[in-house]
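Review form for a predicted model. The reviewer records the input and the model, then writes brief findings.
Reviewer: anonymous (R2)
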Amino acid sequence: MKSQARRIVTGHDVTGKSVIFSDGLPPQDHAMTKQEIGADFIEIWNCPDEVPSLASAPDSEPSLRPFTIMPPTGHLIRQIVLYPASEGGEKTVMHRTKTLDYVVVIEGEVVLHMTDRSVTLGPGSVVVQNGTDHAWENQSDAPTRMVFFHINAEFSDELRAKLPDDLPLMT
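Model under review:
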């Protein structure tokens, strides 16, 4: 599986007509694309604003902003290719994020480990991740491609009071 993603960015010309601004691979300027880490993070788009402003054209290339695992504000979308153990992949550390995540499995198979159980996901599976303790693992013999849409969120006071403090909070 080749770790790349075609991205089409649309907008409007000076008359308001809809146009395609770019069509191709989004530029990547980070070190999270190596077999040594067991995964490729492919940055597609991000926006620091809670409510994005729609303009005729993007004012900059968002995939070239400094890399973060989770957005400190706003949202981001990325593809992640998890390698199998035979190619350097490992089970991620059990962690939680301060985000609402929508995760779609595109290709392959991945195991989602939760505190109470684990589930195996295949193509077309969708996970709605609500800031829960979790880990990912590719137990198959082939890479797995997933799309993650991360939205910055806040833990409610009620939930924060229940959460143990012993897990890393990915940021």
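Findings: Residues 65 and 100 are 21 Å apart (CA to CA).
Further findings: The first strand starts at residue 7 and ends at 12.
Recommendation: see findings above.
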